[in-house]
Amino acid sequence: MYAGFAFITLWGYRKPYQEDGKHYQSKALWLVFAISAVFGALTEVMQENLIPGRVGSVYDWIADLLGGLIGTLVFYFFHRNRNNFEKPTLSK
After folding, report:
1. What CA–CA distances, in Å, run from 72 to 10, 25, 32, 49?
2. What does the pLDDT look like over 23-60, one tens digit per residue?
3. FRET partner for 62 with CA separation of 20 to 30 A, picked from 1, 37, 48, 79?
4. For the chain, how many structural domains are there in total?
5. What is the DSSP letter of 86?
6. In a domain, 89, yes or no
């Protein structure tokens, strides 16, 4: 789930990601990973404290981190080939 969250979030920002240079690209990748890490931690805390019968786990949070990292890396490697983001044109 967190891999999909990271990938889709970066996909939504692909246009500025392509145009604003390496500094913005690096910042975007780290920001999305950080957001997924914080969101994962918050869900574990909420499970522990707000939902009866549920337990928050550090191991689940680590799995969330790995998912966010995988989604970020998949987007990064997918984006390296910029032709993947070009809209197909119909030739007449």
Report:
1. 8, 11, 7, 29
2. 778 888 899 999 999 999 999 999 999 988 888 889 99
3. 79
4. 1
5. S
6. no
Among residues 29, 30, 48, 40, the alpha carbon closest in space to that of 65 is found at 40
The domain of 79 spans 2-84
Residue 53, SS3 per DSSP: coil
Residue 91 covered by a domain:
no
DSSP assignments along 3-66, one per residue:
HHHHHHHHHHTHHHHHHSHHHHHHHHHHHHHHHHHHHHHHHHHHHHHHSTT----HHHHHHHHH
The verdict on residue 71 lying in a domain is: yes
At residue 61, the pLDDT reads 94
Assigned token pair, 53: 């019968």
pLDDT range class, residue 69, cuts 50, 70, 90: very high
* Residue 49 located in a structural domain: yes
